[in-house]
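Sequence design from tokenized structure. All designs in this work follow the same two-part layout: the structure record, then the generated sequence. An example of the structure record is given first.
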């Protein structure tokens, strides 16, 4: 789920912090900071990730899954008045099969907010801008993987849990059952999610 470390697959993911704690930076339901400006980022590497979260080998708390994740291709961020990057969301189009139906979805990941700016609506703003961009590209569905403490935040943004088993690809042709929560959101009127097992046709993002 993480595009932050290099241009290749990484064993890190989108939700921030320790898997056993509640994530205060993603509990904001409304924008409490006025005039939040979200921008399209030309690049997002480990340097930009550390600008937001500081150094660390497992900033999203998902190393315990043992999974390898793909980097994102499209990036959005929020900068403080001094130009420092303080929030990020990434996007990556995905091919998958759900309930025997082949479809595409826009993967959402790499969501993070700087510790000193959490609780101010930045996560809501940057994820919302990314979803709006996915709509302009014609995508009808968004998909993400997150740890259980984050599901309430994403429900507040219109995501719904996918309850059937989700299988994802891993290096060397291996398949793995996704241990994180899988959630999807409709991006267009009439968009639905087929019932049944889900098979991602790539590494997760």
């Amino acid at each position: 789920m993480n595009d932050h470390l290099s241009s290749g697959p990484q064993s890190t993911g989108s939700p921030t912090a320790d898997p056993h704690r509640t994530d205060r930076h993603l509990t904001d339901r409304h924008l409490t900071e006025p005039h939040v400006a979200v921008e399209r980022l030309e690049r997002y590497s480990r340097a930009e990730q550390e600008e937001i979260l500081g150094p660390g080998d497992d900033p999203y708390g998902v190393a315990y899954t043992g999974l390898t994740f793909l980097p994102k291709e499209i990036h959005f961020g929020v900068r403080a008045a001094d130009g420092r990057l303080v929030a990020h969301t990434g996007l990556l189009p995905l091919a998958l099969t759900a309930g025997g139906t082949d479809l595409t979805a826009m993967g959402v990941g790499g969501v993070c907010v700087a510790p000193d700016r959490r609780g101010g609506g930045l996560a809501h703003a940057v994820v919302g801008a990314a979803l709006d961009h996915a709509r302009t590209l014609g995508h009808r569905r968004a998909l993400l993987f997150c740890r259980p403490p984050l599901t309430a935040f994403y429900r507040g943004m219109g995501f719904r849990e996918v309850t059937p088993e989700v299988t994802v690809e891993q290096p060397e042709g291996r398949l793995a059952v996704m241990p994180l929560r899988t959630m999807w959101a409709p991006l267009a009127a009439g968009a639905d999610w087929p019932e049944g097992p889900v098979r991602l046709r790539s590494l997760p993002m």
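The first helix runs from residue 46 to 53. We note this feature because it recurs in several other targets discussed in the main text.
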